[in-house]
Design brief:
Blueprint: E1 3-4, E2 7-11, H1 19-27, E3 31-34, H2 36-43, E4 50-51, H3 53-56, H4 71-78, H5 84-92, E5 100-103, H6 108-115, H7 124-133, H8 138-148, E6 154-156, H9 162-172, E7 175-176, H10 178-203, E8 217-219, E9 231-233, E10 240-244, H11 250-264, E11 274-280, E12 283-290, H12 293-303, E13 311-315, E14 318-319, H13 321-327, E15 332-337, E16 339-340, H14 342-348, E17 355-359, E18 367-372, E19 375-380, E20 390-391, H15 399-413, E21 420-423, E22 428-432, H16 438-451, E23 460-463, H17 471-479, E24 483-486, H18 493-502, E25 506-509
Length: 517
């Protein structure tokens, strides 16, 4: 069902991109109603505009908080064109028909970011005032009303759709189809939903809704597999500067997220050591901490050079020429770093598809979400390394073992359960993950270490969950492991502890499980 636009209500915060639309509306002979700054913008273009207050008989009041909240406005939006009583009442109360609503929302999230920046430190009252005043009332109400009545009118709720609207006006000379109006209405409801959830999350930050999809979305080439459509909702520009390479794919983004989560564990600790890690299918397949980035890379790669092929790389330093030359010898998908020296960047850019990212600011998220069945699971992030450090074995861990145990526990946290990590000198030398039994993960990790000729004598072992039996401790000891770290909590903890006591092995109980499904 086609509808001819005869009148439009325009009230927007962002004016950029609006001028050609206003000019086309005028060219088509469409009556324009507007308010405040938008009205002035239109009149400055020498285009006639009817002020909304001439409909409501009220000026903008209460500091601009109330200007469109009136039956003369909402009646014009919600009036049904095929209901005789609606038509009669609109005539009786002199309510004009409105066929197009162009309304966006106050920049709440942008204001929130500004008001919580360091420039407002110590002035919480002023920051709160700024934030509250950017909670839009009339805007969401008009957008919802227009989207509800999409059978009769078109709603445009964001400047990102201005180009589409202009094309539609030009190509169809002011006429719209029901399918087009419905598509714009769907976008409008999504925008208002996102806006309301952002406000809700501000007032209740510990209960962040999993439905808070960012308004910005990017259609990906495909999803996990080529026959699946994929979309990313979010603004990557806030997290990364992309310096080179093709667009990030669905699988790239999943691995990049895992890489960023991992490298955050080594940020802000005050430790000047450099950490390099290699991620494959969200699991850590190589990681090491050394005094220089080149040494960290060499040690990380040595941990599993086979799995490193086609991986996502991440480090907590600036990539120099020597490191870039070493990295350039293998095929990888993505590299994330704090920065790149100019000569290093030139080397790494020789492969056109290779994605090079600079991490600007890790996402400050408090929760994780995933869709299951016909709903969504959400949980708090898994924060921290250990809740306690309880020496429970046959001896206290040495200083070197303590460093390796702490490092191994973090690595284990970023492996799929059941997870085992073997570490020596802050280098991952063997790992097992995603197995259906813990002993299988341990066997896998020992075989990995032997495959690449690592000496296990003096290495340490981390487990993401408790040892239900003493078999893991026995097998680890037989391979050369001298210290263990695990959360504890099994009714048979005493079996593993007793074995460590009898064989003078160190065991640390952390009281914090790190399952990762």
């Amino acid at each position: 069902m086609q509808k001819k636009i005869s009148s439009a209500l325009i009230s927007v915060f962002y004016k950029d991109g609006l001028e050609p639309i206003v000019k086309e509306l005028h060219h088509l002979g469409i009556t324009i109603y507007s308010t405040g700054g938008t009205q002035k913008f239109i009149e400055d273009l020498d285009i006639p505009c009817v002020p909304v207050e001439s409909l409501t008989s009220y000026p903008s009041i209460l500091g601009g908080r109330v200007k469109t909240l009136h039956p003369a406005v909402f009646g014009g939006i919600l009036g049904r064109r095929d209901v005789p009583q609606d038509i009669s009442e609109m005539k009786e109360y002199h309510i004009p028909v409105i066929d197009l609503v162009i309304v966006d929302l106050y920049p709440f999230e942008e204001t929130l970011a500004q008001a919580t920046s360091s420039s407002f430190a110590g002035n919480a009252e002023e920051a709160e005032k700024m934030i509250i005043e950017k909670i839009d009332i009339g805007g969401p109400s008009m957008i919802r009303a227009a989207a509800k009545n999409h059978k009769d009118l078109l709603v445009v709720a964001a400047k990102s759709d201005y180009a589409s609207l202009l094309q539609l006006l030009v190509d169809q000379k002011g006429e719209t189809t029901l399918q087009q109006r419905r598509a714009f209405a769907a976008k409008a409801f999504e925008i208002v939903m996102h806006y309301d959830i952002a406000i809700s999350n501000y007032f209740n930050p510990e209960a962040v809704s999993p439905l808070a999809l960012p308004a910005t979305k990017q259609v990906l080439r495909y999803g996990e597999n080529p026959h699946q459509q994929g979309v990313f909702y979010g603004d990557l520009d806030k997290v990364f500067d992309k310096l080179h390479g093709k667009e990030l794919s669905y699988n790239n983004l999943v691995d990049v997220d895992a890489a960023v989560q991992l490298i955050q564990e080594f940020s802000g600790s005050g430790d000047s050591s450099k950490v390099f890690a290699i991620i494959k299918h969200t699991n850590v397949c190589g990681i090491a901490s050394r005094s220089t980035l080149k040494e960290a890379w060499d040690a990380a790669l040595a941990g599993d050079p086979e799995s490193a092929f086609g991986g996502v790389l991440v480090c907590n330093g600036t990539v120099d020429k020597a490191t870039a030359e070493a990295i350039n010898e293998i095929f990888f998908e993505v590299l994330i770093a704090d920065g790149y020296q100019a000569d290093a960047l030139a080397i790494l850019q020789t492969k056109k598809n290779r994605i090079l990212l600079t991490l600007k600011a890790a996402p400050e998220t408090h929760t994780q979400s995933k869709s299951v069945l016909n709903g969504v699971l959400t949980q708090e992030n898994d924060k921290g390394n250990y809740a306690e450090w309880k020496e429970a074995g046959g001896r206290e861990a040495t200083a070197a073992e303590k460093e390796d145990l702490s490092f191994a526990n973090i690595v284990c946290k970023h492996l799929k359960s059941n997870a085992i990590a073997l570490v020596k000198n802050k280098q991952l030398i063997g790992k097992g993950c995603g197995q259906t039994s813990r002993i299988d993960s341990l066997r896998q990790s020992v075989e990995k270490a032997k495959q690449f000729n690592f000496e296990l004598n003096g290495a340490v072992m981390a487990s993401d969950a408790f040892f239900p039996f003493d078999d893991c401790v026995k097998l680890g000891h037989a391979a050369g492991i001298t210290a263990f770290i695990q959360p504890g909590g099994s009714i048979r903890d005493k079996d593993s502890i007793a074995y460590c006591e009898q064989n003078k092995l160190a065991m640390v109980i952390t009281g914090l499980r790190h399952f990762k499904h």
